[in-house]
């Protein structure tokens, strides 16, 4: 990377904010508070909106299009994620980040004002477009502000925000819908967003950039079409359309063709949306694989664990977020410890290995649950899985960012986020299909011809509904759910083994900003673009 003028270095040094030293602690805390609020906005939205869905349908109608309220948001978020990252690299992080917040808040206001289901779907797409830049912006700005060596101490904070969103989101959403109305499930974003906007504007000062070339519009279109097609395949496959249907096959064909075209365009574009040279870094490629698998198995677990506890263990659906406390608390605690150890020692290779081992162990234990398994026992199993996730959730982003040059921080952050997002979409779809097929088979075996009808009737069971079923049907359904989770969690363990193999090949490249390591070149393998990073990154006041 090109050197920086002496005056600029002196200015950055006075502010305590070089790529090697990072901002001073007080400045970092102020900026990170604003970033965590923004991160909470991105993660809370779907969690809060989900409990409001029945009320929304009752008010606006359009039950047949209800799934699009979520799908439109997910599609826009996934498709825009890599574009936001590239825009930040080209035109400056702060302005792009603030723009994404404004678009997200505008989409929130419009969604709350929607008068019919069509409007709500369109406005949710606008909201998702902004949301695509929120998480990427947070990760990329942290990458700019804090050297990788020091970044570990903040990993627990990010994991904690995720835990708060997953636990508190459904509870807050239900409370808001019951007492204020469903529109406030969207309006609640405004005060949080306003605080984030004010704080980021006031305390964050990033170097202005001038793009050297035009944005790769063709690449952006091809990537958007490719990602959208894949997300629609995972969303519709097995639910709206059969996996072998013409619609799904066409979407797969369009998606594959678009992504192949995208790869060709990236080789020739002056400013590619996703520069392929970042994948020459062995660590970056391995972290992309591990991140995809982590997203795949984590969101599958988040889907099926509450279902098992509600259907088999008789837990209340109202407190579904609380059922995941053992997993989330273990994940948060381990992430904090791993982050501090990384900061203190500069070592990180052991964490992906230990994390994947614990993930495999946790999924195997969860796959052994049956109708007699107690909540205490399942809680212990979840804690093992959560500990594994804690070692993986933030370390994958940390190593990915440390594997590229500072000029590619945005595309590295967006690519890592995109792989995890795609992994979650595939995980919910594939694990869901495996689960549903197994449930159908066991219901047929145990309940005969009544099995299929009973499965349809109890697709989202509560303890009260299960108690009203005939003993034979209830027993069959509980065994079917147990068998379904067994198959889904075994798949999670198998994929964890793939992640473990990838983790063994990670090379322990010194983290930037760690004393002698700050003079090390960026890159983790021979042939990488090895360049010393010595430029002012940010100024926080």
From TrEMBL:
One Pfam family this sequence matches: MFS_1
Q: Where is this region: Disordered?
A: 1-23, 512-541
Q: Which cellular component, as a GO term, is one annotated location?
A: plasma membrane
UniProt-listed InterPro entries: EmrB-like, MFS, MFS_dom, MFS_trans_sf
Q: Name one GO molecular function term.
A: transmembrane transporter activity
Give yes or no: UniProt keyword Membrane. yes
| Biased composition regions of type Basic and acidic residues, renumbered to the chain | 517-541
Which keywords accompany this UniProt record? Cell membrane, Membrane, Transmembrane, Transmembrane helix, Transport
Kindly give the membrane topology term recorded for this protein. Multi-pass membrane protein
Keyword Lipid metabolism set for record: no
Domain (Major facilitator superfamily (MFS) profile) spans: 31-511
Show which residues constitute the signal peptide. none
What Gene3D superfamilies does the annotation carry? MFS general substrate transporter like domains, Multidrug resistance protein D
- Which ranges does the record mark as transmembrane? 30-53, 65-84, 96-115, 121-142, 154-172, 184-205, 217-236, 242-265, 286-308, 320-338, 350-367, 379-399, 487-506
Concerning CDD domains, the annotation shows: MFS_Azr1_MDR_like
Subcellular location(s): the record lists:
Cell membrane
Recorded hits in PANTHER family, A to Z, give: COMD (PTHR23501:SF197), MAJOR FACILITATOR SUPERFAMILY (PTHR23501)
UniProt-listed NCBIfam families: efflux_EmrB
The similarity annotation says:
Belongs to the major facilitator superfamily. TCR/Tet family.
Q: What is this protein called?
A: Putative exporter
């Amino acid at each position: 990377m090109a050197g920086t003028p002496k005056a600029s270095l002196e200015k950055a040094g006075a502010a305590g904010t070089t790529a090697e030293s990072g901002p001073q602690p007080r400045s970092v805390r102020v900026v990170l508070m604003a970033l965590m609020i923004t991160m909470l906005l991105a993660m809370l939205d779907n969690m809060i909106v989900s409990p409001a869905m029945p009320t929304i349908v009752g008010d606006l109608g359009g039950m047949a299009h209800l799934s699009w309220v979520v799908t439109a948001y997910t599609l826009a978020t996934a498709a825009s994620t890599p574009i936001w990252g590239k825009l930040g690299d080209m035109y400056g992080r702060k302005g792009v980040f603030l723009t994404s917040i404004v678009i997200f808040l505008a989409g929130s206001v419009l969604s709350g004002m929607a008068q019919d289901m069509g409007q709500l779907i369109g406005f949710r797409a606008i909201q998702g477009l902004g949301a695509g830049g929120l998480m990427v912006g947070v990760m990329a700005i942290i990458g700019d502000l804090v050297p990788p060596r020091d970044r570990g101490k903040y990993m627990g904070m990010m994991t904690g925000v995720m835990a708060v969103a997953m636990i508190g989101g459904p509870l807050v959403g239900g409370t808001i819908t019951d007492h204020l109305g469903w529109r406030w499930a969207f309006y609640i974003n405004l005060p949080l967003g306003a605080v984030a906007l004010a704080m980021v504007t006031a305390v964050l000062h990033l170097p202005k950039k001038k793009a050297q070339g035009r944005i790769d519009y063709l690449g952006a279109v091809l990537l958007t079409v490719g990602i959208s097609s894949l997300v629609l395949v995972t969303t519709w496959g097995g639910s709206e359309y059969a996996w072998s249907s013409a619609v799904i096959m066409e979407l797969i064909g369009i998606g594959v063709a678009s992504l192949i075209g995208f790869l060709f365009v990236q080789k020739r574009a002056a400013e590619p949306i996703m520069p392929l040279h970042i994948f020459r870094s062995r660590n970056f490629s391995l972290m992309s694989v591990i991140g995809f698998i982590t997203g795949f198995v984590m969101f599958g677990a988040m889907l099926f664990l509450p279902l098992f506890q509600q259907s088999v263990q008789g837990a209340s659906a109202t407190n579904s977020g609380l059922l995941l406390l053992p997993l989330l608390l273990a994940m948060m605690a381990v992430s904090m410890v791993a982050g501090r150890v990384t900061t203190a020692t500069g070592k990180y290779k052991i964490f992906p290995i230990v994390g994947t081992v614990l993930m495999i162990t946790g999924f195997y234990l969860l796959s052994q649950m049956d109708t007699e398994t107690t909540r205490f026992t399942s809680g212990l199993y979840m804690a093992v899985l959560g500990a594994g996730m804690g070692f993986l959730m933030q370390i994958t982003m940390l190593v990915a960012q440390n594997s590229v040059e500072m000029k590619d921080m945005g595309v590295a952050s967006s690519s890592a986020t995109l792989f995890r997002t795609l992994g979650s979409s595939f995980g919910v779809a594939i694990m869901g299909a495996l689960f549903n097929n197994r449930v159908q088979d066991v219901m047929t075996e145990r309940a005969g011809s009544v099995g299929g009808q009973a499965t349809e009737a109890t697709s989202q069971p509560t303890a009260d509904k299960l108690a009203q079923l005939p003993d034979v049907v209830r027993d069959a359904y509980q065994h079917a759910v147990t068998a379904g989770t067994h198959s889904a969690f075994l798949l999670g363990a198998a994929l964890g083994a793939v992640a473990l193999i990838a983790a063994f090949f990670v090379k322990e490249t010194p983290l930037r900003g760690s004393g002698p390591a700050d003079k090390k070149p960026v890159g983790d393998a021979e042939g990488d673009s090895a360049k010393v990073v010595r430029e002012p990154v940010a100024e926080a006041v």
